Amino acid sequence: MDNEFTRSLWNSQFRLTYRLILREKELHFNIGVYNPSREDPFSFNLLLHTYFKVPDVRRCQITGLHGCTFLDKTRDNQIYQEGRDVVTVCEWTDRIYQNTQPEHIITNVVSGRKMRVQKYNFPDTVVWNPWQEKARDIPDFGDDEFPNMICVESGHVSSPVVLLPGTAFEASQILQVQSGPTSHVNAGGGTNSLLPTSSASSAVWPTGTGWLYMPPPPPPPPPPPPPPPPPPLHPSQSSHLHSHCVAQTCTICSLNL
């Protein structure tokens, strides 16, 4: 929520929630923004800086961008239309794709897996890799790290969100591993060099504020115990009488004879 410090930078009242849900093979992001003011609207842009670790960015393919217009920041912000069914990255890339599909599949992330990206209320998708010439200019980015990462970022970039007084905005993203062992996803910045040790290993998912630990799947539950033996039959239901039955009551089944 806003406070004295935030208002010194941006003089608007706001409430913001950021929720993460970690599941066995999924990471959910949910962002909500509320304008509590009674009089003043405000506008903002939003972008999830999601970095994926990959063995070779030149072998990655991204779906869900065919036919979309994009602003190419590497070519003086010229507008183009994407004609490829799958997008690959083989040079410095910084593109804002507009009105993209709600789902992208990224192939050949760590150990040959696929990453499924589903988004809601994020109309834009940014694809970014600094390549060698721009990696040198980033203080916290290694000069030789560019081949092992790719950014596919959901956002509201090409046009701002305008929030009227008393209204709210909500958007979400789901990252889902589709095949292979565990992947590592950076939702903040920089790349990570963690490698899986086995398909049953636990996962560590970094975010912009720290690391989230995802334990390995729990073992299957033990089999249910065998059912109890059926109660003994009453002498009238059995061809074998209990040896200690008396004329009035059976002491095993406690039934009147």
From TrEMBL:
<dbReference type="InterPro" id="IPR014718">
    <property type="entry name" value="GH-type_carb-bd"/>
</dbReference>
<feature type="region of interest" description="Disordered">
    <location>
        <begin position="180"/>
        <end position="200"/>
    </location>
</feature>
<dbReference type="GO" id="GO:0005737">
    <property type="term" value="C:cytoplasm"/>
</dbReference>
<dbReference type="GO" id="GO:0004034">
    <property type="term" value="F:aldose 1-epimerase activity"/>
</dbReference>
<comment type="pathway">
    <text>Carbohydrate metabolism; galactose metabolism.</text>
</comment>
<dbReference type="GO" id="GO:0047938">
    <property type="term" value="F:glucose-6-phosphate 1-epimerase activity"/>
</dbReference>
<dbReference type="Pfam" id="PF01263">
    <property type="entry name" value="Aldose_epim"/>
</dbReference>
<dbReference type="InterPro" id="IPR008183">
    <property type="entry name" value="Aldose_1/G6P_1-epimerase"/>
</dbReference>
<feature type="compositionally biased region" description="Pro residues">
    <location>
        <begin position="215"/>
        <end position="234"/>
    </location>
</feature>
<dbReference type="GO" id="GO:0030246">
    <property type="term" value="F:carbohydrate binding"/>
</dbReference>
<feature type="region of interest" description="Disordered">
    <location>
        <begin position="215"/>
        <end position="240"/>
    </location>
</feature>
<dbReference type="GO" id="GO:0006012">
    <property type="term" value="P:galactose metabolic process"/>
</dbReference>
<comment type="function">
    <text>Mutarotase that catalyzes the interconversion of beta-D-galactose and alpha-D-galactose during galactose metabolism. Beta-D-galactose is metabolized in the liver into glucose 1-phosphate, the primary metabolic fuel, by the action of four enzymes that constitute the Leloir pathway: GALM, GALK1 (galactokinase), GALT (galactose-1-phosphate uridylyltransferase) and GALE (UDP-galactose-4'-epimerase). Involved in the maintenance of the equilibrium between the beta- and alpha-anomers of galactose, therefore ensuring a sufficient supply of the alpha-anomer for GALK1.</text>
</comment>
<protein>
    <recommendedName>
        <fullName>Galactose mutarotase</fullName>
    </recommendedName>
</protein>
<dbReference type="InterPro" id="IPR011013">
    <property type="entry name" value="Gal_mutarotase_sf_dom"/>
</dbReference>
